[in-house]
Specification:
This protein has a ten-stranded mixed sheet, sandwiched between helices. Strands 6-9 form a two-stranded antiparallel sheet. A two-stranded antiparallel sheet has the order 7-8. The model has no long low-confidence stretch (mean pLDDT 95). The two termini are 22 Å apart. The protein is 46% helix and 21% strand. The protein has three domains: 217 residues, Isopropylmalate Dehydrogenase; 125 residues, 3-Layer(aba) Sandwich (Isopropylmalate Dehydrogenase); 37 residues, no CATH class. It has 14 helices and 16 strands. The chain has 396 residues and is an alpha/beta fold. It binds NADP nicotinamide-adenine-dinucleotide phosphate (NAP) and magnesium ion.
Length: 396
């Protein structure tokens, strides 16, 4: 390796897996170079969360990061870790610093059959991560009265619309987005489609939301026509826009193998649906991509807290490390691509094949055995599973 990867360590069971993966599957095979940031909750607390900001800055500097799952503190964690503050979600902080879009895709394995049986290729969901209902303002209307939508420009001029003349109690919600954020989202989607050579679908409800959703549609189309049309044609891939209802129907009938760009709420809901339909949350990869082409790879699942508490009690765990291994291979492959190091890309491809082959050979963790069609699966504990992947790797 020539350029270091930004390595963001994390919490609980995934922190345990992180160490095992490095020792068993990475360090024996490659001359690893990383710049290490400990995003474990204790260290975030010690540094007043400065370490998260520093790791995001390093990601911008070097271009590629790999991240372990981290705890987003809540009231229970305040006591558990004796926190100075309820620190923000590291993923939120990193996403904001990189202005990034999250792409999630399932890892497909023979013997784990999607509920939608024509899905033979992965569907990648790109979720816009800013605004709409996630930055809403709401009022519970107490009784009769008039609700208005008012915009006051810097020069004082106003735009005013009546929302509703209430005859009795009800509810109102104000949501927003910005052209800047939508443009970044569109750019990240177009770049990722080119990068992975997959078609890009985008859908909203512009027939009903003639200004709000229509603005998303227009920004995508204008950027596509101005900067991406030729590149897409050269790459032999397609961008198209359709109504969300139509998209849902087409997604179900499809064979997969494309990127589905979703507004914030649609992406939240649809990514859970797609993940479940493909089989298992622990088989979902996730990559944050900035409009400038900076990449941060991670597993889509969390820190697997319940397994960690068993681990602390000295009980055996069978936690699936595949999505975390794919975060490493994704990052190493990208580093190889950017630095022109073919061996790194080959290592990543081979390690991913080793993961898949191991499960297809019937060796797996407990949660996979529950959804696998394998007749007599061998259920391994967390370390044994990683060692089985190493043994498979050595035979490839
Ligand atoms: P989670 O860690 O994803 O785990 C939820 C459940 O899914 C687990 O209890 C386990 O089920 C199953 N599961 C998830 N990943 C698995 C794996 N690799 N192998 C086997 N089973 C797996 O979500 P959570 O329990 O809601 O959250 C725990 C912590 O993670 C929270 O503090 C949250 O803030 C954090 N989190 C972080 C991220 C991130 O950093 N990107 C994302 C989500 C959540 P069973 O217990 O039934 O076996
Ligand atoms: Mg959700």
């Amino acid at each position: 390796m020539t350029t270091p990867l930004v390595e963001m360590d994390g919490d609980e069971m995934t922190r345990i897996l992180w160490k095992m993966i490095k020792e068993e599957l990475i360090l024996p095979y490659i001359d690893l170079k990383t710049e290490y940031y400990d995003l474990g909750l204790e260290h975030r607390n010690e540094t007043d969360d400065q370490v998260t900001i520093d790791s995001a800055e390093a990601t911008k500097k070097y271009g590629v990061a790999v991240k372990c799952a981290t705890i987003t503190p809540n009231a229970a964690r305040m006591t558990e870790y004796n926190l100075k503050q309820m620190w923000k979600s590291p993923n939120g902080t990193i996403r904001a610093a990189l202005d990034g879009t999250v792409f999630r895709a399932p890892i497909l394995i023979k013997g784990i059959i999607p509920y939608v049986n024509n899905w033979s290729k992965p569907i990648t969901i790109a979720r816009h991560a800013y605004g709409d209902v996630y930055k809403n303002v709401e009022i519970k209307v107490p009784g009769a009265g008039k609700a208005e939508l008012v915009f006051t420009g810097e020069d004082g001029t106003q735009i005013r619309e009546t929302i509703h003349e209430f005859a009795g109690p009800g509810i109102i919600q104000g949501i927003h987005n910005t052209d800047k954020s939508i443009t970044s989202f569109a750019r990240a989607c177009f770049n990722y489609a080119l990068d992975t050579k997959q078609d890009l679908w985008f859908a909203t409800k512009d027939t009903i939301s003639k200004k709000y959703d229509h603005n998303f549609k227009d920004i995508f189309q204008e950027l596509y026509d101005a900067e991406y049309k030729d590149k897409f044609e050269a790459a032999g891939i397609e961008y198209f826009y359709t109504l969300i209802d139509d998209a849902v129907a087409r997604v179900i009938r499809s064979e997969g193998g494309f990127i589905w760009a979703c507004k914030n709420y649609d992406g939240d809901v649809m990514s859970d649906m797609v993940a479940t339909a493909y089989g298992d949350l622990s088989m979902m990869t996730s990559v944050l991509v900035s409009p400038e082409g900076v990449y941060e790879y991670e597993a889509a699942h969390g820190t697997v807290q319940r397994h960690y508490y068993k681990y602390l009690k000295g009980e055996e765990t069978s936690t699936n490390s595949i999505a975390t291994i794919f975060a490493w291979t994704g990052a190493l492959r990208k580093r190889g691509e950017l630095d022109g190091i073919k061996e790194l890309e080959e290592y990543a491809d081979k390690m991913e094949r080793a993961c898949i082959r191991t499960v297809e050979d019937g060796k797996m963790t407990r949660s996979l055995s529950l959804i696998s069609t394998c007749k007599e699966p061998v259920i391994l504990n967390s370390l044994e599973f990683i060692q089985a992947i190493r043994a498979t790797y050595d035979t490839l």
